[in-house]
Design brief:
The complex is a heterodimer of chains A (about 230) and B (about 300).
Chain A: E1 2-11, E2 20-28, E3 32-36, H1 43-50, E4 58-63, E5 66-67, H2 76-80, E6 83-86, H3 98-107, H4 113-126, H5 142-154, E7 160-164, H6 172-187, E8 191-195, H7 199-203, E9 207-212, E10 215-221, H8 224-229
Parallel strand pairs in A: 3-8, 3-9, 6-7, 7-8
Antiparallel strand pairs in A: 1-2, 1-4, 4-5, 9-10
Helix pairs in contact in A: 3-4, 3-5, 4-5
Chain B: H1 2-21, H2 23-58, E1 62-67, H3 73-89, E2 94-99, H4 101-112, H5 115-119, E3 129-134, H6 140-154, E4 159-164, H7 166-208, H8 210-218, H9 223-265, H10 278-307
Antiparallel strand pairs in B: 1-3, 1-4, 2-3
Helix pairs in contact in B: 1-9, 2-7, 2-9, 6-7, 7-9, 7-10, 9-10
């Protein structure tokens, strides 16, 4: 069953070239898909459309069968609670502790404080930052901040994880930790869509969609035979 | 229900945390709003203190009806039902008291302190009379009807003179109306000032917490979740300012009372200005919180869309 569907989706910004042009694709529930392509190819726009941060100029985007073009503002929070967002800029709240940042997706749903804290600590443990729970984000390195953002994205066990260049600021060890975390979620049946430039990841991907100038230019999926060779 | 309560508890704690982070700014805003609230609160305190006195003076306008000197006592007594008929015809209630001329003289001697001088007059110079206290005349418009009743009473047989205090009632009623209107105008104007101050305070909070609002939206926060801490901040600001204003007015009464007591002593009175009672105080605190909440709601609705 398709979790994400794009039907001839275009996105135009006034005074600039099309960010997306007639994009059609389908991502099944539980898939781990990488989006590749040069800067400005439309990867971030595509991810933002899935989260309804951007709306298509034309075409339809369906998330779990729900057309995001028809979601009313009141319904948006409930869509986003099913998603885990890891954006290029971490967007952490600098006046709150690491733990409070990770607890936020649970708090907004009205989860009990103790339960939220327990789950947030577990999420921080998965990204290797449990010891930094009480720290303030500005005291962390860029890589650590990125891992806090990942913990925040996974803490509420989303159906879909959207990661925009999640390893851009990370060293190889941290990047591997991120990849293994995403793969663990993929293994648990979570749909993961990751945009990246990192050839190291693309070499290990099951499915890659290439974008250039807002269009899907290539796509491939590892066959079981290829998996055996890899 | 549990989730709803939990989210409100979180909003209250978040509002307190925000106030704690910017306590200096919060305290300054409380002071500004308290100054605006203190003026109508002080006016209301004075009006509430003066109202019992003004009520006694204004509620029952009096008409004194004097009989002719040669009117026999029987005729004077027989006038009572005729006066009541006049009241009925004018759909007015009142308390009628007959004052025999001997009683009137006795009262004059007692009150004026001219007992000896009056005794030298020999004959009683006062006529029989009635005192009519009218009910339900609380404003200047009503008081105009007193004149009409007086004219009808004057036409009754045996009546020599009718003295009306309607002019006094009119003036007092009009003065009280002016005072009430002035206080209402002042309260409305300063209420708008309070809403404007809170509006601006919350606007600044929304702008400085733009990043937090955006992040909260991205992780699935509803507008209600985002708005609530701002609403509580506004209500807390109003409540704190209201309490400060009431405290300041209560403290201000002390030196004022020293001067008032000295003035009242000249009139053999022990009049003192008292602070507002618990019911009115609670009502004013509630009103202050509502004003703060209104300012916050207007501000959040106006600026939250821009922050997103």
């Amino acid at each position: 069953m398709a979790m994400i569907e794009f039907h001839e989706v275009s996105k135009l910004y006034a005074g600039s070239a099309a960010a997306l042009s007639q994009v059609s694709l389908s991502i099944a529930s539980g898939e781990l898909v990488f989006l590749a392509g040069p800067s400005g190819a439309g990867k971030s726009t595509l991810l933002k459309m899935i989260a309804a941060i951007e709306r298509p100029t034309s075409g339809r985007v369906l998330v779990n069968g729900q057309d995001i073009g028809h979601i009313k503002p009141r319904g948006l929070p409930y869509l986003r609670r099913k998603l885990g967002l890891i954006l290029q800029e971490q967007r952490l709240l600098m006046d709150r502790s690491v733990l409070a940042n990770v607890m936020l997706p649970l708090i907004v749903t009205g989860a009990p404080g103790e339960d939220a804290e327990k789950r947030a600590r577990a999420a921080l443990g998965k990204v290797g930052l449990l010891s930094k729970a009480a720290s303030m984000p500005q005291s962390l390195s860029g890589g650590e901040q990125q891992r806090v953002a990942i913990a925040r994205a996974i803490v509420h066990r989303p159906q879909v994880i959207l990661a925009d260049e999640p390893t851009a600021n990370l060293d190889r060890d941290s990047a591997n930790l991120v990849l293994s975390t995403l793969k663990a979620f993929h293994g648990a049946g979570v749909t993961c869509i990751v945009s990246t430039h990192d050839e190291y990841f693309l070499d290990r991907a099951d499915r890659v969609i290439y974008l250039s100038q807002g269009r899907v230019t290539d796509a491939w999926q590892r066959t079981p035979v290829e998996e055996d060779v890899a | 229900m549990k989730i709803w309560l939990r989210q409100h508890r979180f909003a209250v704690m978040d509002a307190f945390a925000r106030l704690g982070r910017n306590f200096g700014s919060f305290a300054f805003n409380v002071l500004v709003v308290a100054i605006a609230l203190a003026l109508p609160f002080a006016g209301l305190t004075i009006l509430e203190n003066v109202r019992p006195i003004s009520t006694q003076l204004a509620v029952e306008p009096e008409i004194s009806i004097f009989m002719a000197m040669d009117t026999p006592r029987e005729r004077a007594n027989a006038l009572a039902p005729e006066i009541r008929q006049v009241l009925q015809a004018n759909r007015t209630a009142g308390v009628l008291e007959f004052i025999p001329r001997e009683n009137a003289l006795g009262a004059l001697k007692e009150r004026s302190g001219l007992s000896d001088a009056i005794t030298t007059l020999g004959n009683n110079p006062l006529p029989d009379g009635y005192v009519l206290k009218l009910a339900g005349f609380n404003n200047a418009k009503d008081a105009g009807r007193v004149d009409e009743i007086a004219v009808q009473l004057k036409a009754l047989p045996g009546v020599e003179y009718v003295q009306v205090d309607s002019a006094w009632v009119k003036r007092l009623a009009a003065l009280l109306n002016v005072l009430r209107l002035a206080l209402l105008f002042l309260a409305v104007t300063l209420g708008v000032v309070v809403v404007a101050v809170v509006f601006n305070t919350i606007r600044l909070q929304v702008l400085t917490q733009r990043e937090e609002i955006e992040v909260s939206r991205l992780v699935g926060a509803t507008d209600g979740f985002i708005c609530r801490p701002f609403y509580y901040s506004g209500a807390l600001l109003g409540l704190a300012a209201g309490a400060l204003a009431l405290g300041a007015v209560a403290l201000g009464l002390r030196p004022l009372n020293a001067a008032v007591a000295e003035f009242a002593r000249l009139y053999a009175s022990e009049f003192q200005l008292m602070p507002l009672g618990p019911a009115v105080t609670t009502l004013l605190l509630l009103l202050s919180a509502i004003l703060g909440l209104s300012g916050a709601m207007l501000s959040v609705r106006r600026h939250l869309g821009r922050a997103a």
